[in-house]
Amino acid sequence: MRVLGVDPGLTRCGIGVVDGAPGRPLRLVHVDVVRTPSDGEVGARLLAQADAVAAAIVAHRPDVVAVERVFSQHNVRTVMGTAQVAGLAIVAAARAGVPVALHTPSEVKAAVTGSGRADKAQVGTMVTRLLRLADTPRPADAADALALAICQIWRGSAQRQLAAAAALGRQG
Q1: Is residue 112 left, alpha or beta, with left meaning phi > 0 and alpha meaning psi from -120 to 50?
Q2: pTM for this one?
Q3: Given 7, 19, 107, 135, which residue is catalytic?
Q4: Residue 137 belongs to a domain with what CATH number?
Q5: Of 51, 107, 141, 144, which is the active-site residue?
Q6: How far apart are CA 134 and CA 127, in angstroms?
Q7: Which of 32, 63, 68, 119 is catalytic?
Q8: Range of the domain at 10
Q9: I want to staple 124 with a disulfide (CB 3.0 to 4.6 A). Which of 7, 113, 133, 136 is the partner?
Q10: Is 41 considered catalytic here?
Q11: Is 32 a catalytic residue?
């Protein structure tokens, strides 16, 4: 399975692509952080992020796109930009006919570190180990995008199986 993970942000959007399957080694395919100037016009910044996600989908042909589910933060400006870019990533995947999975930050942290309260350094360290990299992807947005992809590889198949079982139960 190939998963494209998106850590949405208006100033920095992490895009990471990982190949793997539960119980099998993971392989880094691609990682990038798309940056836009914080003083730039919002439309141009959103367009740059949307184009980058769409290009990554075309270039890497993922089986699924995993996007961080936006959660309420104290800084409304930050959460607005994050939500806008998350929406653009979802639209880019839908246009390409690629399924989308949403994961909360705590789900991602728990999947890759074993603790939903892990900090950025712990996530980066585990992403580095799991992908057998020489160095931790920088900035943290890169590691976070890869962690989203890993989370989907490990948890996505279980979530699909549970949903299918629930659907069968409703039919019977």
Answers
A1: alpha
A2: 0.91
A3: 7
A4: 3.30.420.10
A5: 141
A6: 11
A7: 68
A8: 2-171
A9: 136
A10: no
A11: no
